[in-house]
Design goal:
rod-shaped, 4-stranded antiparallel beta sheet, 2 domains
Amino acid sequence: MNQKRNAVLFLIAFMFLILSVAPGFAAEVRRVPSKASVEQGFLALTVGADRAENLRYTGLEDKTHVYRGTIKPGSKLELTIVATLADQKSLPITGRSCIMRMQVVAKKGSEVLKTQNYSKENKSNVFVNYTVPEGADTLEVSETFVLSNKSKDQKFNQKVTSQNKLILTVSDAAAAGVANSKTDGKAGDAKTDKNNNSKNAGGDKNTAAKDGDKKGGADKGKTDAAGDAKDSKGSGTGMLAGAAVAVAAIGAGAFFYMKKRKEDQAAAEEIARKEKLRQQAIQRQQEMQREQQLREAEQQRLMQQQQLSEQQRMTQDQKAAQQPDAGTQPGAEGAYVAGAAGVMGNVQNTEAGNAPQDMQGTAPHFCENCGAPLKPGSKFCENCGTKV
């Protein structure tokens, strides 16, 4: 719940921020160059002045593309000039170089308060953070873009030059007054300046900027008419750009929210999977312990049975050892003969003629079980008790 609430608050704050700065994003004009320049790989030029209002392209003035807009005194601007180039691989061009120069002049009436220069080589864009000096009512941004192409095809060994001027004033009326004052003060030199500008079209950009101002004063009616005709278009473009940015911001916020949600869900599933595997491992370990205990109990039982059997066998052996054996038996003359050996000795003595006097002439009898001599007429052996 906290993550959802944070995501919703983030989206609301982001939309508020986008909508609050939407007019600044709208202060941007994208100009498509001529067909010949497009063939050389120069697709578009974008001029932007963030925190400026009513920015629009007013057309060519003495071969210089002019843009106009209004600003507040002392405001902070983000000046942007971006040249969009075609992919070099899509054209038969083996080498390309870009040069972009920018000059920012702050004026109060006809007085120059501050001048700054910026330059980028092998870059197709310039970004400048600029603060309008206090007291300045006009800001003139002169820009020259040069694109050089080299190729085996001579058609593409050309240079494309685009001169642009951005005039930002406190109001359009003030811009018109400045232009009229310049025209009235230098009307006698207008033709000479125009000829010099035509000769130095690719030369000094400061001269081109001055010539543009003079030409702008001379053609004031034409410029103002073109500007008025495009005011509504610029406003509509600004509204559409702001709406597009807002929609893009909402879409981006929703995308990141859904991405974060999926990541959280995947993380929760991964945690659940690991916990399940851990529980299964614990269960398997417990089962293995029980099986080990059963095996040990079975081994102990078998060992006890084996010990019992061994004890029983030893007891039987002891009993068998304790039974009386044949031992020595009394002979006919009172002498004792040991077991069967004694019997055999008596037999041998008898055969040798050494038998006792009372047994000569009669056949002796012996027990078939233990070999002890039997008394005449006995039915049982007196030694082992076996029936005769």
